[in-house]
Each structure stands twice: as C-alpha cells, then as structure tokens.
Amino acid sequence: MEKKKACGAHCIKISDINVRFGDEVVLKDVNIHLHCGHLVALIGPNGAGKSTLIKSILGEVKHTGKVTFRNLVKGKAEKMKIGYVPQSLNIERDIPVTVYDLFASYISCYPVWLPKRKSLYEKIVRQLSIFSIEDCIDKQIGKLSGGELQRVLLSIAITPMPNLLILDEPVSGIDHNGVMDFYRLVDTIKRENDIAILLVSHDLDLVKEYADKVLLLNHEVICEGTPDEVYDDPRFHEIFDEEK
User: What angle do CA 239, 243, 244 make, to 5 degrees?
Assistant: First the structure.
C-alpha cells in the first residue's frame, strides 16, 4: 500500500516518558514523534509497557515527561484533542444502554434519560453512518457484535475529529473480515483527515501493510523506523523469536 506523506502542519511529541511502580521500571525515557497523516504502530512483547504508555498519554498513570502538540504553521503549541478506542468494554449483555445512550453521554451534557433531542439524534446518526452502522443507534450495546461495537467506539472517538487517535489493540475478539474492515476504515480516516494515529497491535502483518512507522517497545524504545526497517532489525527477531 502506498504510504501518504505527512502534511507537515502539525506534530505531536511524546517526550521522556518514565513510569515506575515501586522499584519496577515500567517505561524508561520513551520518546515518540508523530506527524499528522501518519499511523505509528506500537509493538512489543507482552508486559512491555505498551498499555502503560497509552495510559500515560491519556493522563491515567502517574509519569514524568510530557506530551506536546505543535501547530507548525503558526509556530506554537496548542491544546491537543485525543480520541481513544480501547481494547474492549466490560458491558453486561443485558444492560439497558443503547448506542444512542452511550454516544450521547460522550458528546453532550443533555441527560440521556430525558426525551431524545432530534438534533442530537440526527448528529449521532450522521456520525454512525460514516461507518455504515447508523441502523444500530437504538440497539443495546450488549447485543452488538464485536465489529459493530468497535465501529461505534471509533465513531465516538472521532467526534469531534481529534489531533491524535489512539487505538489500543482495537480488534481483539473480532473475526478476520471484521479486522480487515477496521484497518481499512482507520486508514481512510487517516488519509482524509490528516490526523496522527497511534496503534497498539500484535498483528504484525497488518502493521506492515498499514503503518507508516513502527516503534518496538520493551520498557524502552528498542528500535523504530519503517515496517521493513524494524522487521529486519536483529533486535526485532530476538524479541519475537523468543515469544514463539
């Protein structure tokens, strides 16, 4: 797949992230540079600190270091909008919460137990239609398939469109066709909106196909570069050959 060059208007720097849990060093001096219009894939063995890094960026884990978003056209730092799709949601199958309820609770202060507002309902329908799941708006969250749920979460994550979209192993439990559809949707979002995407994934083949840059993490950055550069690195083989 032909990789699109970054537009060069914005950049995100994740600088010197360090995390310790007691005496355990979970992350050490992690630096990542993301450009708009690029997908950076974060790979590594189990327990490498990938999810901890995501939680640090989201402000959910105590850490040192910083994350900055800079408008290169204006030459100044700006507040960054982050969209996030988690690996899964722990939702009871029979919970009486619909897609509308979940979506509205994220994007509006209007109480979801009050009568639906037509304008809000129509806005959610439009956002869901981007991923062809507008028919799910009144469906209970617990009754969605894995692929439907991930499309709903992706719809929420890009409302409004963020500067950085974080995807933390977003296709776990989805069948092969659903996985392929999800990656194609993410690629379309990236190309059409010039946003930066940080993806945590164990699917090395799809990472190679869709990522512009790969970062191999094992508590610290082991190596980074294009998919071919990282996959050809002896340190990549040392880590993943051990996991086989």
Answer: 120
Nearest to 15 by CA among 162, 214, 221, 236: 221
pLDDT digits (tens, 9 = 90+) for 56-73: 999 999 999 999 987 766
> Whole-angstrom distance between the N-terminal and C-terminal Cα of the chain?
28
d(CA 108, CA 86): 20
Question: Rounded to an integer, what distance in angstroms lies between the CA atom of residue 166 and that of residue 29?
Answer: 20
Task: Decide: 194 and 36 in contact? Cβ < 8 Å.
Answer: yes
Residue 224 and residue 75 in contact, taking contact as beta carbons nearer than 8 Å: no
DSSP string of 47-99, one letter each residue: TSSHHHHHHHHTT-S--EEEEEEEETTTTEEEPPPEEEE-S-----TT---BH
Measured CA to CA, the distance from residue 34 to residue 2 in angstroms comes to 18
The rounded Cα 194 to chain-centroid distance in angstroms is: 15
CB contact set of 138 (below 8 Å; sequence gap of 6+): 98, 99, 100
pLDDT 10s digits, 61-116: 999 999 998 776 676 777 889 999 988 777 777 888 999 999 999 988 888 888 89
Q: pLDDT for 161-186, tens place per residue?
A: 999 999 998 887 788 888 898 899 99
Lowest mean pLDDT among 6-20, 40-54, 157-171, 210-224: 6-20
